[in-house]
Write a structure and sequence with these properties.
95 residues; four-stranded antiparallel sheet; alpha+beta; single chain; 39% helix; Alpha-Beta Plaits
Length: 95
């Protein structure tokens, strides 16, 4: 888990487990201002949106979720502010 996210877990953040850093995720970040996260299976879109906004201080435009073949829940989060996904990825050490 990234340092910032691990620190956040100790502060009551409970839905987001970790960020996804695949080639497809990086392309979405650069072209569509989106980040992908693995989240708790019980989390709702509203839960995810609220937690991401508190964790990173960025307004979320949209949250899409899906279950992976591994049984994990993946959230694709689009940010309102242009370039915010790249800024957050840099702060997490993904770029």
């Amino acid at each position: 888990m990234c340092g910032e996210m691990a620190e956040a877990a100790g502060k009551g953040f409970r839905w987001v487990k970790h960020v996804v850093s695949t080639e497809k995720a990086v392309l979405q970040m650069e072209k569509e201002n989106k980040l992908q996260f693995i989240v708790d299976v019980r989390a709702t879109k509203k839960d995810i949106k609220e937690e991401i906004e508190r964790l990173f201080g960025a307004r979320v435009k949209r949250v899409n979720t899906m279950l992976t073949p591994r049984g994990e829940k993946k959230a694709i989060v689009q940010f309102e502010e242009e370039g915010k996904a790249k800024e957050i990825a840099t702060s997490l050490g993904l770029m």
